[in-house]
Amino acid sequence: MEQEGGLMNVKPIKLLPATKDYIWGGTKLKKLWGKRADTPTIAECWEFSVYPGSASVVDDAMFKGYTLDKLLEKHPEFFGEKLKNYKKFPVLIKLLDASGDLSVQVHPSDEYALEHEGELGKTEMWYILDADEGAYIYYGFNRGYTREEVASAAANGSITELLNKVFVKKGDCFAVPAGTVHALCRGVTVYEAQENSNVTYRVWDYRRKDKNGRERELHLDKALEVMDTGPAPMEQSANARTVNGNTVRKLVKTEYFNVKEVRITGEYLMYSPDSFQVVTVADGSAVFDSGAVAGKGDTYFLPAGQMYKLTAESAVILVTSL
Ligand code: ZN
Questions:
Q1: How far, in Å, is the centroid of ligand 1 from the Cα of 300?
Q2: Is-contact 140 185, C-beta < 8 A?
Q3: Strands 136-141 and 182-184: what pairing?
Q4: How far is the CA of 45 from the centre of ligand 1 (A)?
Q5: C or N terminus of the chain, fewer CB within 10 Å?
Q6: Which residues are the active-site residues?
Q7: Rounded to whole angstroms, how far apart are CA atoms 202 and 221?
């Protein structure tokens, strides 16, 4: 290890996800995004996670056997000064393959979730990595409704008629603040940055049964308490700017995470003085100055305060920091 001005010079650190297999998962994360799991299908890859029991694994000779939470414990300096502003670790990054529809759901705010669940709430963002022809999502309501109208539509199974149905394509981006009712639907592959929380209130699950013949639990009462029943938030249409020949789109900035998309054609320098950066390749492949190759679907952790260079003929990367 080189020492420079007291700061260790650390190469980009590759992360391997904790994988989850839910009833709506498919085979795309294995076949198209290079992911591995013992299960035949994968619903979610938790690419950047310190969540208890579901932490990502560090795939690096120097930190052999580490999970991301252990890296945080041993090398808090890698994560940067900004992290000290948070009582709980703020962000979790996932890839999702919706081979079936996800339940219609809503997440609470921090205030509500800390009081009722002892966890953070969940504000999230989606970046569409890929979408089948005709694929759509549900994103908020198609107009304002009363809580009574929503409650009776959820009870009689007509709730999707009240939702804002949005057809999606690769590269589309949505901010999903806590309280926004939503569902990812069949045929979308998504990059999701979210608060580091697992609190979901299910509103409607299409009366589906799991392999044991049971319907999954709904949480309509809590959902109605936290839900914004006004019309859907504005969709994100981020402005692109060109930086040294590369195109940068600032996608979503919240108090928990900051996500941008970079189209690299040539060289791209990455430096963040006070926060870590997490790089996931959405298209193509790129090479770090360390020689590490970042292929489609790979996620790398870049410690704070160090300079990195990525080189690509043509690649699209997503970069999340605090
Ligand atoms: Zn959600």
A1: 24
A2: no
A3: antiparallel
A4: 15
A5: N
A6: 202
A7: 10
pTM of the prediction? 0.94
Structure tokens at 75: 């090398």
Is the domain defined by 240-321 classed in CATH 2.60.120.1690?
Answer: no
Q: Where in the chain is the domain with CATH 2.60.120.10?
A: 2-226, 240-321
> What is the SS3 assignment for 283?
strand
Burial code (b: 16+ CB inside 10 Å, e: under 16) for 121-136 equals bbbbbbbbbbbeeebb
Compute, in angstroms, the gap from residue 83 CA to the centroid of ligand 1.
24
Rounded distance between C-alpha atoms, residue 315 and residue 171, angstroms: 13
Question: Looking at the domain that runs over 2-226, which CATH code has it been given?
Answer: 2.60.120.10
CA distance from start to end of the chain:
26
Distance CA 70, CA 80 (A): 15
Contact 221, 154 (CB under 8 A): no
DSSP 42: B
**Tens digits of per-residue pLDDT, 103-152?**
999 999 999 999 999 999 999 999 999 999 999 999 999 999 999 999 99
The conformational region for residue 259 under phi > 0 = left, psi -120 to 50 = alpha, else beta, is: beta
CA–centroid distance, 111 to ligand 1, in Å, is 17
pLDDT band at 5 (very low <50, low <70, confident <90, very high): very low
